[in-house]
Write a structure and sequence with these properties.
The complex is a heterodimer of chains A (555) and B (310). Chain A has 555 residues and is α+β, with helices and mostly antiparallel strands. Chain A contains 17 helices and 22 strands. Chain A has a 5-stranded mixed β-sheet with strand order 10-11-12-1-13, covered by helices on one side. In chain A, strands 14, 15, 18, 19 and 20 form a 5-stranded antiparallel β-sheet that branches. Chain A has a 4-stranded antiparallel β-sheet with strand order 4-5-9-8, covered by helices on one side. In chain A, strand 10 and strand 11 form a beta hairpin. Chain A is globular and about 75 Å long. Chain B has 310 residues and is an all-alpha fold. Helix content of chain B is 77%, strand content 0%. Chain B is flat. The relative contact order of chain B is 0.14. The chains are: A alpha+beta (555), B mainly alpha (310). At the A-B interface, helix 8 and helix 14 of A face helix 2, helix 3, helix 7, helix 12 and helix 13 of B.
């Protein structure tokens, strides 16, 4: 295939290929965007190596042949997972992911990869997407997987009666009808039994990534209609395992599906074991061989894991962040100088050291992370107390300021951020009172606090969080942010396929967010987990998604 | 005696009513918050309104309180939000697990601390007394989370003798009980030992013991026949009150070892804001507290010959 032929897949791909050849785009970004726009993964990889002269795949390490059999025991919360549409914990997604699957899988390399959809095509304006579904997939009850399943699942997600977070994720497919919101009449078209066309009202560059988000798992077409809306009672799935037992708070047991379309899973049985809320139990269970793999570990206990030579540790950079955000509609944060003064007090490196033991990357006070493909480094920020005092005086607080910051009590590092900020602000005459609240109390009012630390989860693209949290009137806009210039640029970025151009726009967006001084972005978290040295073929996912059918246990 | 019992029962019910009112006011008065917890953060106002109406949340609060109290009294605690099953279905098995743990702790702790207390109190100020006293003060001063960490480090991570968590996922395994029982016994035995010692020491100074000794009764018999029975009266109350602590105060130990008991359940319920489960756990804890108190009081009057209702 030469460069010109690539234009048949999507008009923007030839330009992208030229950008790669001429070094304006790196290999990873080429792979991401070309796959996003519908190029098959093998084609994208071979194209990339053709254009850059680099070897086709990163040199694989010499590996043993996978061994079949055995039981893989995973330490993870076993929570109620009855209705996938309303999942609000990633653990629930992992309980279900062994049974039902997404259309697109965001891989551990942060690339959107075809899963139940074998390929997709986007229109030039990125508003219309056509998904081609795999034809060889069967549900565990024998039905063939097809377009009806996808349409039924989306119809349910987009209905406000369901209460699914997917409604916001795919809001460009909805229509308002009085008080309720539902799927727009022609939003999903069944082209044929295995092809679905999605007609968005907005440019939806992040559609494949959104399809890979943890609550976007496709259920059988009869879910919630002919069958009760309960995956645990009716575990009909396309996934690699069948459900054998599910006891909330204790354990879940899965058995392998030998005829899984993605290849027979290596392990015979999968056990999820709930170790409770104490992180010490995770270390104890893994060390004494009661589990083989953990869903997560507490970085405070990292030395305990490192001390054991039979334990393998995995880490991953993420875009998880505890944003110390200021609500710009509340006094005194309505004054930009006050916000800038607060920012000037922060030493991001030191903050990372003190609040999270240096395990991450310092932030630059705009909500785009280094792992995002459209990220531009604007340079580290410096602590400057003279500047802070001057700004405070100009804002009308020459004698200092008494303010309060709210945060949750768990996880601990969020409270640590607030405590360290309070210490860092003292020399500038700012008396910051730290208010640690139980999660329930905090989250009930999380968008209303004048100043607070809110955890934001990781998403594959930078535009995704900006879209849900920084647009005027958006439900999650906790800053009360309202900047038409920013929104215009964001619209532009979301409709721009050309990578260097999009990066250029995103740089402007980053600059605007930094200048408006609406938040302190302390640091981007690195996350950890661990397994026994028997576990092979496991890769840690930045959103902690567990794909276990390729994992095997050595003898 | 009957009047005394009736009085105690009356106070018990009164306390439970007062607490139930508090629990209800704290968790139920704001109906819309309950709806958010039940339906999830992404639910619409319309959904919440429908739910509140269907569950009678628009009635006056006192009406709702009595309806709620009636359900609680009949054992209908509602559905758990986290477990999606009736609260009773998770509550009773968890309580049973904690009872198993408590039984083992009791079986080990009571004999050990009574024997040590008697040995120490028998000869106040002796070397035995001093060593036992120092040991019990040290173990009681170390909080459970610290001793759990230390003992885990020793027996699980270094020596690798014992399993690290006690989830009993492959069925009941006595080996998994060793660590939690050990930690709890270590923390609590010192307290009872000290009570026993004090009581014993006091009895040993009383004139009838001196008389018995001077009468020429063998020392062993003085202790067993004369001193012990009277010395046990005061510690009895303390021992019974430990039941309450073991059923609802062992959150730290259960969470540390991932033991699926009542304390861990209470923790999970609060972390997940599982309102109906929290209510049920709170009421069960109060019941256990009030009931053990009553048993201790009644038992004390029964054992102590100086108190008699005729």
């Amino acid at each position: 295939m030469n460069i010109k032929d690539l234009g048949k897949v999507h008009v923007a791909i030839p330009k992208l290929a030229e950008d790669l050849r001429d070094g304006r785009v790196d290999r990873r970004e080429f792979l991401r965007t070309s796959v996003l726009l519908g190029l098959a993964i093998p084609t994208a990889y071979s194209m990339a190596s053709l254009l850059t002269g680099e070897p086709l795949m990163p040199q694989a390490l010499a590996q043993e042949t996978p061994r079949k059999g055995g039981t893989l025991r995973l330490g993870i919360f076993v929570m109620d997972a009855s209705d996938p549409a309303i999942y609000d914990w990633s653990e629930k997604g992992n309980s279900a992911r062994q049974l039902i699957e997404p259309l697109v899988q965001v891989g551990t390399d942060n690339l959107a990869q075809p899963h139940l959809a074998e390929k997709w095509q986007a229109s030039e304006d990125v508003k219309t997407w056509t998904l081609y579904l795999r034809k060889d997939v069967k549900w565990s009850n024998g039905d063939a997987f097809n377009a009806d399943d996808v349409i039924a699942t989306f119809t349910r997600w987009l209905d406000s009666k369901t209460g699914s977070s997917n409604q916001g994720r795919f809001s460009g497919l909805t229509v308002k009808d009085g008080d309720t919101v539902k799927m727009a009449p022609n939003a999903l078209e069944k082209v044929d039994a295995n092809t679905v066309r999605f007609n968005f009202t907005n440019a939806m560059l992040s559609f494949p990534e959104s399809l890979g988000d943890y609550p976007a798992l496709i259920t059988h077409r009869d879910f919630a209609t002919k069958h009760e809306a309960n995956l645990i009672k009716n575990p009909i799935g396309t996934g690699p395992f069948n459900l054998k037992e599910y006891v909330v708070g204790q354990r879940a047991v899965y058995t392998k599906k030998a005829d899984y379309w993605g290849g027979e899973p290596y392990v015979d049985e999968l056990q999820f074991i709930d170790l409770g809320a104490d992180p010490a139990a995770e270390l104890a269970a893994l060390s004494s061989g009661q589990v083989d793999l953990l869903y997560k570990l507490d970085p405070n206990l990292l030395p305990g894991y490192q001390a054991n030579p039979t334990i393998k540790i995995y880490d991953k950079d993420t875009a998880i962040v505890g944003v110390a955000r200021m609500r710009v509609t509340e006094k005194p944060f309505d004054n930009k100088k006050v916000r800038q003064a607060l920012q000037a007090c922060v030493d991001h490196d030191r903050l990372l050291q003190l609040a999270y033991q240096g395990l991450g990357t310092p932030g630059q006070d705009f909500h785009v992370a280094p792992i995002h493909p459209e990220y531009t480094d604007l340079g580290p920020l410096k602590q400057d107390y003279d500047k802070a005092k001057k700004l405070l005086a100009e804002a009308g607080y020459p004698n200092g300021l008494d303010i309060e910051i709210n945060c949750v009590d768990d996880p601990k590092w969020e409270g640590q951020i607030a405590v360290v900020l309070s210490e860092m602000m003292k020399p500038a005459g700012i008396n910051l009172k730290v208010n640690v609240l139980p999660g329930g109390t905090y989250w009930d009012r999380w968008t209303k606090w004048p100043f607070s630390v809110t955890q934001w989860t990781t998403r594959p693209l930078g535009v995704q969080v900006l879209d849900v949290a920084y647009r005027k009137g958006a439900a999650w806009n906790e800053n009360g942010y309202d900047n038409p210039e920013f929104e215009a640029l964001l619209n532009q970025a979301q409709a721009t396929i050309d990578v260097p151009k999009r990066k250029e726009i995103m740089k402007k967006i980053e600059q605007i967010l930094q200048d408006d001084a609406i938040s302190i972005i302390p640091f981007w978290l690195k996350i950890y987990t661990a397994s026994s040295d028997k576990v092979q073929g496991f890769a840690y996912h930045f959103a902690r998604e567990m794909y276990l059918h390729r994992v095997w246990l050595s003898a | 005696m009957l009047i005394f019992l009736a009085k105690r029962a009356f106070f018990m019910i009164l306390t439970m009513l007062a607490v139930s009112l508090l629990v209800f006011l704290l968790l139920e008065v704001n109906g819309s918050a309950v709806a958010v917890k039940v339906l999830g953060p992404y639910s619409s106002d319309e959904q919440r309104h429908l739910w509140l109406e269907a569950h009678g949340y628009f009635a006056p609060w006192y009406e709702r309180y009595f309806a709620w109290l009636g359900r609680m009294a009949s054992g209908d605690f509602g559905d758990s939000l986290r477990f999606k099953t009736p609260v009773a279905a998770v509550l009773w098995p968890r309580l049973a697990n904690t009872a198993i743990l408590a039984a083992f702790v009791f079986a080990l702790m009571v004999p050990v601390s009574v024997v040590l207390g008697v040995l120490a109190g028998m000869r106040e100020g002796s070397a035995t007394d001093r060593s036992i006293s120092i040991l019990s003060i040290i173990t009681t001063s170390v909080p459970e989370f610290a001793s759990a960490t230390f003992l885990s480090f020793l027996f699980v991570l270094v020596l690798k003798w014992l399993p690290g968590t006690s989830g009993m996922n492959q069925g009941f395994d006595p080996l998994q009980l060793v660590m939690p029982v050990l930690v709890l016994v270590l923390y609590d035995f010192g307290y009872i030992t000290r009570m026993m010692r004090a009581s014993m020491a006091e009895v040993m100074q009383s004139p009838y013991i001196r008389t018995a000794v001077l009468k020429g009764i063998p020392y062993r018999r003085v202790i067993m026949r004369h001193a012990l029975r009277n010395a046990l009266i005061a510690p009895f109350t303390v021992i019974v009150l430990q039941i309450n602590w073991l059923l609802s105060g062992v959150i730290v130990v259960e969470a540390f070892f991932g033991y699926k008991g009542f304390g861990a359940l209470l923790l999970e319920a609060s972390l997940n804001q599982d309102i109906y489960l929290i209510q049920a756990c709170a009421m069960v804890s109060v019941f256990v507290a009030v009931a053990t108190q009553t048993i201790a009081d009644v038992g004390y009057t029964y054992l102590n010959p100086r108190i008699r209702f005729t």
